[in-house]
Hints:
This protein is an alpha+beta fold. It folds into two domains: 137 residues, no CATH class; 95 residues, no CATH class. It is 51% helix and 22% strand. The strands form two sheets. Strands 1, 2, 3, 4, 5 and 8 form a six-stranded antiparallel beta sheet that branches. A hairpin with an 8-residue loop joins strand 3 and strand 4. Helix 1 crosses helix 2, helix 1 runs parallel beside helix 5 and helix 2 packs antiparallel against helix 6. The relative contact order is 0.09.
Amino acid sequence: MIKRLHSLVIKSYIGPLFVTFFISLFVLVMQFLWVYIEDLVGKGLEWTVIAELLTYAAAGLVPLALPLAILFASIMTFGDMGEHFELTAMKSAGISLQKIMAPLIVLSVIISIGAFFFSNHVIPYTNLKTGSLLYDVMHQRPELNIKEGIFNNDIDGYSIKIKSKNPNTAMMYDFMIYDHSERRGNPKVTLADSGRMEMTDDQRYMIVTLYNGYSYEEMKEQSRGLKKNIPNIMISLISR
């Protein structure tokens, strides 16, 4: 009788466990996708790349989804048994709650051991692959990291602002670049009607091509008696 009881409890538990696990994993993957949606949309990525990224991300989120699934499945299983008075019938037959829960405790221990080995061997690999894929995607078209009308400071020593951009042609308009590399305020500013940004093949440098604009540089002030002179340099940018 105990074996049949344990079999009934496990059968009632397995279904909700799988359902709640995949629902929890789906919600966590959607949260991951929501965080990086701006880095993925509009870059012309193939669906295989996105599917690979989501697969690695889902594998990395398994340790978060599994405890939620175990908790919800346990609540659903015993809640359903209590609703149908099955727990009352078992206890009236002289079966303690510990014996009723014994198969689920053993199953949870087995799942915990499997989750430990999964986290120890699989998670480091999936985190590495997820990080490398995100890096490749984010640097595939660096101009998409720049928001319209907002200064971007991702490049050390420079602040970049654009008015608008065309995601299809990678062209950006109304460039404004402040050079802070010398650590003395805003002595250098570059203005251009349009331009584009692209990474070199080795991903070490970024090439910024500007069209129709000017570059202004304020030199160090020179004192002549009581008068202070602040010379300026202006360089014209002409498209070819």
